Amino acid sequence: MRTIFLRFTDRTEALALLGAAGLTAVPRTETETETGPVLPPLVMTAAGPVYPDPVFGTGIVALPTGALDADGLPILAPAEGCHVNLLAPDGWVVPEPLAVKQVSPDSPACVFA
Which domain of life does this protein belong to (predicted)? Predict the structure, then answer.
């Protein structure tokens, strides 16, 4: 198994392109968090199992701004885009709609255990 890191413009684009690549939502309701809805769980309908993980449940990655708050803790700001990691079988070919959204983070903020 290998992890494929994807970054989309926003949640709407993520769901549209994941759907275009053959990933469909399992019928479950979305969960609301303080930052918005969580992407529903997805499964691959054709080419074998692919496990998606919207990073931190929302697709939002928070990065340090370089500034500190009054307690000396780093102030975080959301990184650009909606981030989704896929755990895919070795040899699985990334579908074209997703291939253009693939990124290679130096230090991923969220990985599969």
Answer: Bacteria
Q: Where are the alpha helices (DSSP H) in the chain?
A: 11-20, 96-99
Query: Containing H/E element for 68?
Result: strand 62-68
Q: Determine, yes or no, domain membership for 113.
A: no
Whole-prediction pTM value?
A: 0.73
**Tens-binned pLDDT, residue by residue, of the chain (113 aa):** 889 999 999 888 988 888 888 776 554 455 555 656 555 554 444 445 777 777 766 778 888 899 999 999 999 998 899 998 888 888 888 888 899 999 998 888 888 77
Cα(39)–Cα(51) distance, integer angstroms: 13
Which residue range(s) make up the domain with 57?
2-25+35-103
Calpha distance 99→109 (Å, rounded):
20
Count: domains in the chain: 1
Q: Has residue 72 been placed in a domain?
A: yes
